[in-house]
UniProtKB/TrEMBL annotation:
InterPro entries: ADH-like_C, ADH-like_N, ER, GroES-like_sf, NAD(P)-bd_dom_sf. Residues 22-358 form the Enoyl reductase (ER) domain. The keyword Oxidoreductase applies. This is Enoyl reductase (ER) domain-containing protein. Gene3D superfamilies: Medium-chain alcohol dehydrogenases, catalytic domain, NAD(P)-binding Rossmann-like Domain. Keywords: NADP, Oxidoreductase. One of its GO terms (molecular function) is NADPH binding. It comes from the Bacteria. It comes from Planotetraspora thailandica.
Amino acid sequence: MKQAHTTPETFLGVGYTRDRAGLPLEAVRVPVPQPAADQVLIRVAASSLNPLEYKLADLNFMGRTPPVVLGFDLAGVVVGVGHDVSRVAVGDAVAAMADLNGDGGWAATGGRGGAYALARQFLTVRKPPSLSFRDAAALPMCFLSAFTAFYGAVQAGHTIYIPGGGGGVGHLAVQMAARVLKARMVISSGGRPQSITLARQSGAHFVFDYKRDDIAAEIAELTNGRGVDLVFDATYNEQGFVETAKTVRRGGSWIVLGVGPGKTTRLAETHSPVDAILAERGARHVNVNLLRYFSEPATLDSEARGLLQRGMDLAMEWATQGLVVPHVSQTIDSTVEAINTGLQSLKAGNGVLGKVAVIVDRDLVAVASRSQ
Ligand SMILES: NC(=O)c1ccc[n+]([C@@H]2O[C@H](COP(=O)([O-])OP(=O)(O)OC[C@H]3O[C@@H](n4cnc5c(N)ncnc54)[C@H](OP(=O)(O)O)[C@@H]3O)[C@@H](O)[C@H]2O)c1
C-alpha cells in the first residue's frame, strides 16, 4: 500500500454512537481507516447531505456496530491507495461514494479539515479541474440513483414523469432525461414554489403542484389519454406512489427508488395498491436500490461494478458539459450543529431544495478554486 506520511492516526468525525439513536448526531473520534486492496483513502474536502444519513441514524439498518461516521458523498484528494488500485493515484483530486455499509467523511471541525474516508476504486473518479469540490461532492449518491434508474430503460422520444423535480435525486433525474437522454416530454411536480421552479430550470417541460393539481388528469390530457412511457418515483411517499402509478401507459414502466411501496418506513410493511394498479395496465414495476449494491459488497459482480463506475465517469463528464449540474441551494461548514440542522430539515421535508453541500476542508476547497 502507498500512503502519504502526513495522514493522522485518528480524526473527529460526525455520526451516531448508539444503535438506532437517531438525530442529533455527535462528534466521535475514530481511527483513520487503512485502504484494502481495491480501496482509496481520501482526505475529504467536501461532502453533501442525503436522507439516507438520518435514516441510518434512526434505524441502523445496515446492522453496523456504532460508532458509525456518516457523510457518504465525497470529494477530496487521494492520500492512500490499496495495491490493486490503478484508476487513481495519490495526489489526485477525486469524487467518490463511500460504501454505504462503511463510514463516511464528515468532520466535526467546522470546515477546518481533518476527515478521511475510504471508497472503492470503482466508485472513485478523477475530478475534472473545472468542477469544484463542492459540486463534485453533491453528485455521487443522487446522480447514481437517477443513472441506475434510467440506464437501459429510457429511450429518446419517451415521455417521462419524474415527481419531485426539486429534490436531490429529482432535479438531476429531470436534467438527465431532458438534456442527455432526449426524452420527448419530461413532466415533473413539486409541493413548494421553489421546487417547482427548480424542476422547470432543470428542463422539465411541464411541472405541476402535487398538493393542488390533479396530476393524473393533467398527464392523461398531455399524452392523449395514453399515459407516460415511464415514471421514475424517488419521493418515498406512499400516497404519491399510488398517484404516480396511475400515470403510466399500458405496457410502460414504473421505476421506484429504494425499497418501494408498502415498505418505506422499513419498520412495518403496509398494504399498497400500487402493484394492482400497475397490473391493470400491464406495466412493469422496477425497484432500483443502491443499498442493495452495498449490503454485501464482496458479492458485487463485475457488471454491477462496471455500471456504477460508468455512472461516476458520466457524472463528471455531464457536469463539466453543463448537462447535469447539481443545484446547491445551501453550503454549510462541517460542524455537528450545522449537519444536524440540515438533516432535521431534510427529514421534515420542508426546507431543502436540490442539494445541501458540506465544506469539510475550507483550505483544500480554496486551493482548488484558486487553481481553476
Ligand atoms: N435506496 C436507494 O438507493 C436510495 C438512493 C438515494 C435516495 N434514496 C431515497 O430517495 C428519497 C429522495 O432522496 P432525495 O435526496 O431526492 O430527497 P429530497 O432532496 O428530500 O427530495 C425529496 C423530494 O420529494 C418531493 N416530494 C415529496 N412528496 C412528494 C409527492 N407526494 N409528490 C411529488 N413529490 C414529492 C419533495 O418535493 P417538495 O420539497 O416540493 O415537497 C422533494 O423535492 C429519500 O427518501 C432517499 O432516502 C434512496
